Amino acid sequence: MRLSDRDKAMLDGDEGNVAREAMEALVQLGEAFDAEDMVDIGYAHVHAGMAMYLGDVELIEDLAKRGARMSVPASSNIANADMTAWKATGAPENLVRLQQRAEVAHRSMGCSPCFTCTPYWAGHWPTWNMHMVSIESGVTVFCNSVLGARSNRDGFFAVFSGLTGRYPRFGLHLDSNRQPTHTIRVEATVTGTSDFTALGYAIGRQITNAVPLILGLRNRPSLDELDALGVGMATSGGVAMFVVPGVTPPYADNTTLELLTGLPSFSIDTAALKAVYDEFCNGEANGFDIVHLGCPHASFEEIKHYAGLLDGKTISANSELWITTNRNVREMSRDAGLLKTIERSGAKIISDTCPISCHFARTCSPDPALNVSPPDLKAIVVDSAKQAHYVRDMIRCPTLFTSTENAVATALSGRFVGRW
Q1: Rounded CA gap, 212 and 290, in Å?
Q2: Per-residue pLDDT for 56 more than 70?
Q3: Pairing between β-strand 43-46 and β-strand 290-298 as defined by DSSP bridges
């Protein structure tokens, strides 16, 4: 790899041991992927430090205590507990207190402690052609596909990159890897974020680690629908970038037509969309514990939609409705009077975490001293294919997947209302 003078200085320890160790890790990463050099990054979405994983908070704390500081604007990914309204979720207090220590460490490192999988709704909006890093797959695919930034799926290397401001030039940081590899023709009518997550999930089943060119959408998707489309693909197929003509920079309609020749092609019809819903409807219609909205974390526009659906209504005594979002959106919603409307219905607004990332999870290794025992859940109603997938894998309980509107109707009536 060709290293800049500053890269070499960091390797020599001129900026301290933390920067040296971070640069050593990035050089190893670059060599593993045959990167020719490194790029300057403008933004980093980094690991939160998860209280449910043994030693994970301590790892972030150790970096902060050793003087680690983010060299670019940075935000923190989702955590294992709502650190302010944790009683609403039934989280064990000792788990919450441990998770709060990660917030202190992030503040010390100069990282925004937003603890979310949708930092763009919290004000972190990387721009076209900005090199960036992200630990969160949904952030990666949204920023590549909608904002035109450049990011790989990075894991803990995102922390090292945030500390140094550098990243090896490989993967989706290269123009050659940002070209469509497949053509997908959408033959189904797709409406709302729930359908878009199902569409993304169906696409991801057909291709893996590819860049699909998506044609046939009848209307330009909203930002929330594009977000949902990306997380669906990232969940089932590891997709980190898609192309929608007229949406994904720099692909306008006329340039897209030039890319069609010779690409492998397949279609997604209504049956394929319905199959995703059917797969994730394996719970009993009258045997669910929670209805969950907000995967990925809800935007302000989605909160407005939920408030409209709940205005003047009351959640069934047999139901519990969780709406998960980030701290910034929660405060915006409070200022707009939307929280009052939603909470008056009996629904709960939760930030920092979500069902698959809280104490419900069974696929992690918490410190035995925390004595965290996941509750036995019969089923969770969801409006996201991503949430359905990870509820199955991480909480290991059945799901009931439906549209957002029908999920709210389910919470109001106490009985499941399906999409089909």
Answers
A1: 34
A2: yes
A3: unpaired
Residues 211 and 233 sit within 8 Å (Cβ to Cβ): no
CATH of the domain at 393: 3.30.499.10
Is the per-residue pLDDT at 138 higher than 70? Answer: yes
| Rounded CA separation 165/141 (Å) | 21
Question: What integer pLDDT is reported at residue 283 of this predicted model?
Answer: 85
Are 111 and 232 within one domain? no
Examine the domain organization and report whether 299 and 269 are in the same domain: no
167 and 237 fall within a common domain: no
* pLDDT at position 196: 98
d(CA 214, CA 180): 9
Structural domain harbouring 163:
5-174
The sign of the CA dihedral 31, 32, 38, 40 is negative
Q: What is the pTM of this model?
A: 0.96
Q: Which residues contact 308 (CB under 8 A, 6 or more apart)?
A: none
CB 289 within 8 A of CB 376: no
According to the 3-state scheme, what is the secondary structure of 179-239? Answer: CCCEEEEECCCCCHHHHHHHHHHHHHHHCCCCCEEEECCCCCCCHHHHHHHHHHHHHHHCC
What is the side-by-side strand order in the sheet with 212-215?
A: 212-215, 182-186, 265-268
Asked if 354 and 297 touch (Cβ cutoff 8 Å), the reply is: yes
Q: Find where tokens 């929660």 sit.
A: 330
For tokens 């205590």, what's the residue? 65
Amino acid at 388: A
* Phi and psi based region of residue 82 (left: phi greater than 0; alpha: psi -120 to 50; beta: remaining): beta
Residue closest to 349 by CA, chosen among 337, 361, 362: 337
- With a cut of 70, say whether residue 120 has pLDDT above it: yes
- pLDDT classification of 252: cutoffs 50, 70, 90: confident
